Amino acid sequence: MTPTKSQRTLVAYSSKNGSTAEIARLIGETLHEQHIDVEVAPVSDVPSIAAYDTVILGAGLYAGHWPGEAIRFVRHHRQALTEQEVWLFSSGPLDGSATERTIPAVPSVARIAAKLDAHGHVTFGGRLTDGTRGFIARRLRKQGKVGDFRDREQIRAWARDIASELTTVITQA
Ligand SMILES: Cc1cc2nc3c(=O)[nH]c(=O)nc-3n(C[C@H](O)[C@H](O)[C@H](O)COP(=O)(O)O)c2cc1C
To answer: For residue 3, is it within any domain?
Structure first.
């Protein structure tokens, strides 16, 4: 069903090495296919979220946390976020676990989800390339963690579920 009323959605992301950015773009494309009015942007490029009804916020996991810029985004926009429809996603595991089972949000992100009364959170697989810099990345590479563990169909299915919830909200409004 095509939404009958404008419902602007923002997919905001924090991505140090680019893989979460690609997830965010895939979510944006999928929502667009479902007739949702959507924009995709890095958190650092979003001065205000007042124009949006829905915010989907995601970040890559580093040492069990979202990067600082994602946390600052939540703090800075907290008031607006509590009034908007919010979904969260994380990207991280460098193995097939995220497609095999539901991986709960790390504690700091679970607290954000609770504070914002988010509709949901999902953990998608991550990606590590040979080019990822840093000591930990080197160690992960030695452990054989190089690879792309993002499941595009899982990501698209999650986005389609959101689109369907938004469409229901819009047509009932
Ligand atoms: C230094 C470093 C630390 C990481 N820590 C975690 C972690 O704690 N938990 C996890 O699931 N993945 C971890 N990962 C995997 C990343 O979350 C994964 O590579 C993700 O796709 C990165 O997203 P980005 O490319 O958008 O920055 C880590 C990767 C690196 C390089």
So the answer is: no
Question: Ligand 1: residues within 6 Å at CB?
Answer: 15-20, 60-64, 91-94, 126-128, 132, 134, 136-137, 140
Number of domains the chain contains: 1
Rounded CA-CA distance 31/25 in Å is 10
Q: What distance in angstroms lies between residue 5's CA and the mean position of ligand 1's atoms? A: 38
Q: Which residues contact 44 (CB under 8 A, 6 or more apart)?
A: 14, 69
Asked if residue 73 belongs to a domain, the reply is yes
Q: Examine residue 1 and state whether it is found in any structural domain, yes or no.
A: no
Q: Is 0.70 surpassed by the pTM of this model?
A: yes
**pLDDT bucket at 7, cuts 50 / 70 / 90:** confident
Percentage of the chain surpassing pLDDT 90? Answer: 91
* Residue 168 belongs to domain spanning: 8-172
Surface-to-core class of residue 27, CB atoms within 10 Å of its CB (0-12 exposed, 13-18 middle, 19+ buried): buried
As given in the structure block, the two tokens for residue 169 are: 């909200």
User: Measuring from atom 12 of ligand 1, which residue has the nearest CA?
Assistant: 92
User: How many whole angstroms separate alpha carbon 69 and alpha carbon 75?
Assistant: 10
